[in-house]
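Note to self: keep these together.
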Amino acid sequence: MPENAPTPEPEQNEFVVAEPRRSTWSEMKTSEDWWAVWIGGALLLICFLAFYLNLPENFSEQLTEAQAAGEKLEVHSPLKSWLAKPGKWNESPRDSLFPPEKSSLLIPICVVFLISLCVFAIGIKVMGQSVLKFAIGFLGVFLLATLAYVLTGQVVAKRYNLEYALWALMIGLVISNTIGTPKWMKPALKTELYIKTGLVIMGASVLFSRLLILGVPGICVAWIVTPIVLISTYIFGQKILKLESKSLNMVISADMSVCGVSAAIATAASCKAKKEELSFAIGLSLSFTVFMMILMPIVIKLLGIGPILGGAWMGGTIDSTGAVAASGAILGEQAEQIAITIKMIQNILIGVTAFGVAVYWVTCVEGKDSQVKPNAWEIWYRFPKFVLGFVLASSVFSLLYVSMQGGEIIVPTMVKESSKVFRGWFFCLAFISIGLETNFRELTKFLKGGKPLILYVCGQSLNLILTLLMAWLMFSVFYKDVINEVFNK
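Structure:
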């Protein structure tokens, strides 16, 4: 063929393979997804071993005696006093770091900072980036995350459950849209690495044993309604609203129907959504979560709905797990327990949703639009690998919970007193980073015509109706006697 001859166009029915097969082994060393797995897994292992190796020598005897007496044995992680976040305060923010009734929280917070810096710096180094620049920027991002936690600890903000995610996002947005994000901070804005690592750690708290508490009713509410709402909302956005960005449509649909921010992150990775699309979806979700958290208990009381049905309804519709717990607590202990259990069962769908979206996007969206031949390898590379870490952590700790002697005490205590602290800090760092990377001018295009807002409102309305209907059928009709027996012992 002559040198300047035009390249022949492929025939209409001919598929073109977009790129050669990549190396999974290479990606395990250079991908943020895989480093989220390594860092999250390592921290979970450290937290567990620190707890397990420091159990009393006569732990088995103490456990047997406590069970015989019908009491709960109290054990604590040795890391509890070394890991912390700012606490509550009323009049002076200083009390959040130096509480009058406790020892200073400054040292435990510094320990979290140093451990976090070290584990992330290892990943940064292997991925071929500057550790020094990252460390300098990380200090600034961590200080802003500390400020977000301090604001969250104010008693009035805490009463209304204005969570750290909202404060962190607001702080980042204010800085980026006024004075601008400092250049020295930018190397540390590793939004995906922070939040994906946090999600891997979160896997330890999503126990499959939760399924056994509510059984079929809980599974039906969390696993049947959720995919129906997700698919319906996506189709509504494409066919009726005709949203230009399919990825934004999918992220909003998953965020609203599955479990909020966590599902949005996983789905965004599967469909290659832009950072500003993810930021917009998260902001929309957090805003509605605050309103729903406050209004749903009021509506439930006005309608005369019982705590069991009300808790199931809130657990399947309110996005944030923390907001679900706060709303459930307003209705009582029964509602709180059921709401949290439904939400945790729903959280298990994060991995399933991410895989389903990856398959759909490669085969039906990109394969159709760009004539790229869909294949199993492309689906594998598109699938967010941190979800594997999430599922593995959930599986391992679910197994430990049911098979290890005292596992029902060891696992929840380890999570509460050590791994949950890291998870919270990493999420907070991620929201600070999202805010610092987001410009309002970039978000205004998503509000054009109000379509994303209409999509969220319509999708959430459908979610509320279907979840209430399913919860009523499961908890008040078909399994009423079984549920009442379990929760009224």
